[in-house]
Amino acid sequence: MKTGNPLNFPSDPKWYADPEAHLFHHTGANKTQNYWIYPTYSAAYESQTFFDAFSSPDLVTWTKYPRILDITRIPWSTNRAAWAPSVARRRVQPLASQSPAARANSAKPNPNSQTEEEERGEEWKYYMYFSTGDGTGIGVAQSSTNTPSGPFEDALGEPLVNGTVLGAEAIDAQIFVDKDSDTGEETGRVWLYFGGWGHAVVVEVDADSMVALKGEFVEITPPDYVEGPWVFRRGEVYYFMYSVGGWGDNSYGVSYVTGSSPTGPFTSTPTKILQGDDRVGTSTGHNSVLTVGDEYYIVYHRRYLNDTERDHRVVCIDRMEFDALGNILPVKITVEGVDARPL
User: Fold this and answer.
1) H or E, element range at 100
2) How distant is the alpha carbon of residue 257 from its chain centre?
3) Which of the listed residues 79, 142, 164, 226 has the most CB atoms within 10 Å of its CB?
4) CA-to-CA separations, 108 to 60, 182, 311, in angstroms, rounded
5) Backbone angles phi, psi at 103, to 5 degrees
6) What does CATH list as the number for 16-94+122-329?
7) Taking the complete model, does pTM exceed 0.85, yes or no?
8) Where is this site: Important for catalytic activity, responsible for pKa modulation of the active site Glu and correct orientation of both the proton donor and substrate (predicted)?
9) pLDDT (tens digit, 9 = 90+) per residue, 103-115?
10) What SS3 class is residue 112?
11) 172 belongs to the catalytic site
12) Which of 70, 169, 186, 227 is catalytic?
């Protein structure tokens, strides 16, 4: 069975964009492992006042969790333009505060193993980073149920990032929890990437609280950068993916550069790996990467052929592969999607 593209979200309409994909399990009484996608509701800015989430046990059948964060309940929000949520989980006792012996005992070879997590009795807190008000700021919210389904509530009463920084509009947050390339265990360092208006910025996040910044903002803008940063680690290489072109037309796509640390320096020559296909779909961009074992999937939004409505964007998934040198190969976008992947 194939997933199909776009993904079959149980929602009417199905207009969503900027999807972030994860493999999470519920904490508390329900420890069912699921794929999760956190998108932007693609509509007029005035209607973008909330975030929905979707979960699936196999990438085919999806459950909707409506309004997991309502920005109209956040005093500092302008009650419009809720964009690009990013979700991370942290142990109830953060790794950075554990003793060296405890950290060594918690190391595991497979970070996606639900069984090993349950055997260690781990509980997690979930945090969402989001932009609102077309650049007003980036906020952070915490799940009140310690589950990835929320609901999430504003954690600070003010933005975590307040307005433009180093030329970067405060939109399109990605929270990146660094992990050891051998064990898959968290390194104790967390980074926040964001930026519109052609500038990309990174800043370290306090790994214990997850609601405070540490260190300085660093501009890391690569060539042709527009928006939508996404960083992931494969071995000792950090891949910095980002959207290029115009989000409303078929110039929209995804390029990447690489570096040896979360803050670079990154290579100066980008490679474009995602773009529209006049036989399949157009305006492909604002991606995330889902890693399942040794397999990689790119999750992104695109438009139907010949559909010119500004907000008619849908979420899709396709395989992402590498050559022997670690270069990402050009992605073939499909109508079929990928094979079902039951957990």
Assistant:
1) helix 100-106
2) 18
3) 226
4) 29, 9, 43
5) -65, -40
6) 2.115.10.20
7) yes
8) 172
9) 444 444 344 444 4
10) coil
11) no
12) 227
